[in-house]
């Protein structure tokens, strides 16, 4: 056990990673500062040199998740030429984000009541509304240029795609596909449906 009186970025990142894993596995409420300290190999009191509270750790974990989503989506929007390319990129990058932040994703999905009760949900939901703008801009552009159908409200398409993508972290079959393969399959389903083609 080491005393973290001299905080370092590496130790801080280690604490964040271990905390995220514990929160995802046990729930935030059931995870104590002592649990985190023991798993991170530091005295629990020393954690306060890095973070003001357990909830401050949660805030940073979820903030990192949302910042990464924004960075990825901004890059997609900047480097794609058509609405369909943009939407395919958003699908792919959502799956990559889930792959790279599995614990933060689980916290956001499974511990919403704790987040709400502790005033931690609104900042994440606010960031999510910014993420929504990327989707809606591309969907509306696709409707406007005729590449997407106009008889289904954009909001329904957006919510169907978004919720399906984030739910895939619970699908047992997910591990049977690489992220690019899985992204391609879902994009094909969303854009072309499941009905057999009849030429």
TrEMBL record:
Coiled coil: none annotated. Keywords: DNA-binding, Repressor, Transcription, Transcription regulation. It comes from the Bacteria. SUPFAM superfamilies: Homeodomain-like (SSF46689), Tetracyclin repressor-like, C-terminal domain (SSF48498). GO terms for molecular function: DNA-binding transcription factor activity; transcription cis-regulatory region binding. InterPro entries: Homeodomain-like_sf, HTH-type_TetR-like_transc_reg, HTH_TetR, KstR2_TetR_C, Tet_transcr_reg_TetR-rel_C_sf. Residues 9-69 form the HTH tetR-type domain. Residues 32-51 bind DNA. The keyword Transcription applies. The keyword Transmembrane does not apply. This is Putative transcriptional regulator TetR family protein. It comes from Sphaerimonospora thailandensis.
């Amino acid at each position: 056990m080491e005393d973290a009186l001299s905080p370092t970025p590496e130790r801080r990142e280690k604490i964040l990673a271990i905390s995220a894993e514990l929160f995802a596995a046990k729930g935030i409420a059931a995870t104590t500062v002592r649990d985190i300290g023991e798993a991170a190999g530091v005295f629990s009191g020393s954690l306060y040199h890095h973070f003001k509270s357990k909830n401050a750790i949660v805030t940073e974990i979820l903030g990192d998740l949302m910042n990464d989503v924004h960075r990825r989506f901004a890059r997609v929007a900047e480097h794609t030429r058509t609405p369909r390319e943009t939407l395919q990129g958003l699908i792919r990058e959502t799956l990559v984000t889930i792959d790279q932040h599995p614990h933060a994703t689980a916290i956001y999905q499974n511990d919403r009541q704790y987040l709400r009760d502790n005033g931690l949900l609104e900042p994440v939901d606010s960031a999510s509304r910014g993420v929504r703008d990327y989707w809606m801009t591309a969907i509306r552009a696709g409707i406007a240029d005729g590449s997407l159908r106009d008889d289904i409200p954009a909001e329904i398409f957006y919510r169907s795609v978004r919720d399906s993508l984030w739910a895939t972290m619970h699908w047992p079959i997910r591990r049977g596909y690489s992220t690019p393969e899985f992204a391609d399959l879902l994009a094909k389903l969303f854009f072309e449906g499941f009905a057999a083609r009849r030429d």
